Amino acid sequence: MNTKSLIISQDLCGVGQVSMGVALPLAAGLGLTPYVLPTALLSSHTGGLGANTYLDLSSEMPGILTHWQQLQLQPDGIYLGYLGQNAALQWQRWLPKFSAPLVLIDPVMADDGKLYKGFDAAYVEVLQQLAYRATVLTPNVTEAQLLLDEPLVALTEPSAVMALAKRLHAQFHNAVLITGVPFHKQIAVVGVDASGATLALAQPKEPGHYFGTGDLFAAALATGLLKGQRLRQAAATAMVAARLAIKATLTADADPKYGLNLAGVIPALGKQLP
Q1: Across-strand partners of 55?
Q2: Is-contact 18 259, C-beta < 8 A?
Q3: Which of 129-133, 155-159, 198-202, 219-223 has the lowest mean pLDDT?
Q4: Which residues pair with 203 in a beta bridge?
Q5: CA dihedral defined by 140, 144, 149, 153, rounded to 10 degrees?
Q6: Tens of pLDDT, residues 136-171
Q7: 115: exposed, middle or buried (C-beta count within 10 Å: 0-12, 13-18, 19+)?
Q8: 3-class SS at 17?
Q9: What is the SS3 string spanning 141-198?
């Protein structure tokens, strides 16, 4: 079986096991061929590590993507994570030029009822346009509401989150997994596959907050799908990946501000994937 290839495009942080720092080792360690396109270089991630530096790399993207097309690269998948305004505009222009069977978009822009710093309504509009190109969307509840231009309200009932996922599926005509849904002492993923069939998966919620969990989930999901898993199975694999990384971080008594400990995650997932 030929090795599957995956474009990974998101920010790269010098300090903090998040974003590209999670996705690249996971995809490569599980046997994919990654094509890496960083959207920005940060001295550290933006959660609790002080005033980080930020270098926008979006001006390099057209040259890189032009070269890739000259190389006649035909990736099996594209995974877009945290982009930033300029990089999102670049992908709005370039995504139609690719015909990858899998386009997974994690529309990282908001949480807990508010946009992240530096994002505005114009950014939401660009991600809405990108969402039409996705085969799989992985927003949290707030991001899902923004994509639909709905009021930003807390949803505590799984039935309400499922209804939100169905509206996203109807709007963008793709598979949807709404992530990070709190349910009693569990954390759930609720969604709809490409055919409209619903799915809901949950696992125990570990104490604390861990940066990079969503990045790890999306990267593991993309990897599972490219390795032949169906959406439900790939989502279950991605949830296992997140839980293993959190447990490893807790066991190592590591400061969660620095992101996830991936020790043991890749070997464990390797046993579950084809």
Answers
A1: 41
A2: yes
A3: 155-159
A4: 187
A5: -50
A6: 999 999 999 999 999 999 997 889 999 999 999 999
A7: middle
A8: strand
A9: HHHHHHHCCCCCCCCCCHHHHHHHHHHHHHHHCCEEEEEEEEECCEEEEEEECCCCCE
- Structure tokens that stand for 24 in this block: 């690249």
By residue count, the chain amounts to 274
Question: Contact at 8 Å (CB) between 125 and 94?
Answer: no
DSSP state of 94: H
Let me know: does 71 contact 43? Beta carbons within 8 Å. no
Residues 158, 190 contacting (CB under 8 angstroms): yes
Burial group, residue 99, by CB count within 10 angstroms (0-12, 13-18, 19+): exposed
CA–CA gap between residue 190 and residue 195 (Å, rounded): 15
- Chain centroid to CA 259: 15
Residue 216 contacts residue 241 (beta carbons within 8 Å): yes
- The rounded distance, in Å, linking the Cα atoms of 168 and 224 is 22
Report the amino acid identity of residue 178.
I
Separation CA 246–CA 262 (nearest Å): 9
Distance separating alpha carbons of residues 53 and 43, to the nearest angstrom: 5
